Amino acid sequence: MTSSPASPEVDTWLSTLGGRGAAPAGPDPVPVSPDEAARRLRLLAVPAEDRAPVLATLPDPVRSPALWEALRHCHRTLFAESGPAPRDTVWPDAPARLGAAGRYFYVHLYLLALPTALERQRRLGVPETVVAATFADVGAKAATYRLAHGTGGFDRQLWAMRHFRGTLHRLGRLQFERTTRPAAASGGAPRRDGPAPGETVLDVHIPEDGPLTPGACDASLRSARAFHDRHFAAAPTARFATCSSWLLDDQIAAYLPPYSNIVRFQRRFTRYADGPGAERPVADDDILQFVFHTPPGTTDLGRLPRHTTLQRAVLHHLDTGAHWYRPTGWTRLP
């Protein structure tokens, strides 16, 4: 790609990313050859149909200086010692005017960021199999984008910050993010047998690529504490895993059999009490995206398939005017 198309929308987006101001302290990205870029896309498990357009639109500091400078700012923010948390980072989706170069902008970022991220994993002694499984989530999210939008792109830029900063790893079926329990998590007083406010916990995330079988979840949970104690020895030991997901919405149990994988998964967790200040956000978009790969804001439920028990349950519940929620729960790590 050559220079980015000029427009007020593009100018605003570049300014928001900081591409026209002083960059934060941090490592700069380095231009890569097509062969090296292709190798990195394979490491990120980017789907084959996305690789050619990613390479064709990869910015260059000479041919596309504005986009390269934006990538430089994002790269420095990603690896800055005191960089903002993902939820506090402002990395909006690119304007449609940029076309594929905009839709793949954050794939370009993570492609360029891979060497720094891999070096961090190497210093921590993280096994190559775990590293590969962790970074393959970039490709998984690119595949989900295509299912939702019918074209190539990537819109999980804030989510992937965790992988590249080394706070999230995939261990078998589940992903674990090293974090702390907020003081006001889900409202209510902390339970004596649960995590205390501010305590280090491993937050569980569920990839979309297979059944949530009890055996696979058991294996992941068994490995989590030992993995983090071994590779993050200077960090406090985590006694608990937490999870914030529509999978913990107890309304699901009214639709699915008690032996289903989802119901058995949610029973692992003790939900925080619902009360004043409780964090129980509406999760209609979350469940529709997970089950049907729809983009946020989907309202035409009539066109969605109702082939599986879960699909029928999700849509029937929404058809009644009810909502799905995202409660938070905890479980003691084995």
UniProtKB/TrEMBL annotation:
InterPro entries linked: GNAT_C (IPR041644), NAT_N (IPR041273)
Gene3D superfamilies (alphabetical): 3.40.630.120
The source's superkingdom equals: Bacteria
Q: Where is the GNAT-like C-terminal domain?
A: 168-330
Question: What segment(s) does the record annotate as region Disordered?
Answer: 1-34
Location of the N-acyltransferase N-terminal domain: 35-166
- The name under which this protein is listed is Acyltransferase
Origin species, per record, is Streptomyces triticagri
Q: Lineage of the native species?
A: Bacteria, Bacillati, Actinomycetota, Actinomycetes, Kitasatosporales
